[in-house]
Structure of Luciferase-like monooxygenase:
Amino acid sequence: MDANSLKNIPFSVLDLATVLDGHTAADTFKDSLALAKQSEDLGYRRYWFAEHHNMAGVASSATAVLIGFIAGGTKSIRVGSGGIMLPNHAPLIVAEQFGTLASLYPNRIDLGLGRAPGTDQITAMAIRGENMHAVHNFPGDIDKLQRLFSAENNKANVRAIPGEGLDIPIWVLGSSTDSARLAAEKGLPYAFASHFAPAYFEQAIAIYRNNFKSSKFLQEPYVMACVNVVAADTDAEADRLATSVKRMFLGVITGKRELLKPAVDNMDSYWDQLEKEAVEQMLYYSFIGSPETIKTELSNFIAKHGVNEIMSTSHIYDHEAKLYSNKLFASVFG
């Protein structure tokens, strides 16, 4: 793929509302708004938040509230969820929340849906209560949401007010092949979490494309890949900045989650060889380097996998460096 072809690829942001060591969630939200405003000015298409719970370093638990905050502070960029975890919510509540958002910010709200709880089992039990032991029907809940959003539901006993009759695009999110089959069956766009679950990426998008059934929502398969991005003027500086995300993923695999730590000059004192290999496997789809390096690698990635859209997530401790990375990454698509 010619690097110039990147100009035809939409690019977006996934924000986990990461809390920095020495900072608060309030600081995080302020930084998120600044990043969203910059992303809008730079031509990013979407700005999404992911629902997580009981994680000290992730402040996006009240996902719909954050979406409203960012949409209210911007003018045109699409804002949405990547995703709302349906086991945690009744479809009616999701329809009402996103119907409210779409009424406030018309034609700007996306609803990405996941089937995982977005947390550990103890916290999932705290969220779901007695429903914890009920069989969760993810496909059925998507059907309920689509019905609640439809104008034809206006005679039903249960209605989403607001929400009914509104055009709110639904995406299926996934990190496995099950989600790919579901997205294909329902004819919905598919967003894959390749930023932390690279193992099934190629298989999942192949299943999605091969089994896709066109629908009134989407005529042809549409794949968005989420990847890790750390851009800087030089490869060496990007590598240094990327030690923050490496330390974060090290916390994931060791079960010692912490707030996002500052960059360090050398990771050797933080991990052993097995831990290093595990972190690097999880970060397989990462684009770390100068704009020139990233442009070459990203062009090859898109040529190989044929994705329709790229969503970047960047765990960079220094906020100014993060804004600069966001700017450099946008320049790759120019």
Notes: The two ends are 15 Å apart (CA to CA). The longest strand covers residues 223-231. Strands lie at 11-15, 46-49, 78-85, 109-114, 170-174, 190-192, 223-231, 286-289, 309-313.
